[in-house]
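So, could you explain the following?
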Amino acid sequence: METLLPGQGVISSWRSTDDPEHAWSALRAAIVAGRPTAVAVDNFHVPFRPAYGDVHSNHLILVYGFDDERDVAFVLDATPPRYKGPLACRHLRNARRSDNPTEGDRDLFFARSAIAHRQLDDDPGDLRLDVD
């Protein structure tokens, strides 16, 4: 475990799994416990990213909620173009399980690192973030 925010008491560690159901359960449990969670995604599968459907690349977004009736997750992406709002759960699942493949010569810089359902588990101590 490492300190994410030195002096703030936030402890974090990366979780990774090959089991998509375990990854999904762990993410949902963190959200239900009130802990917004950073997850690794492949931009190729994220509709609000400029690389959607074009270039495979690692990226991080914050998941802060779910609406099961609409089958969406609520996410925050601080990297331009910034986005805050719903993301269809099917897109989130695809983006989290991507092998992030290299396709031809064009995306060698961005690809070749499996996403592997990585998420940043944390113990925020007394720190609370307002994502609303």
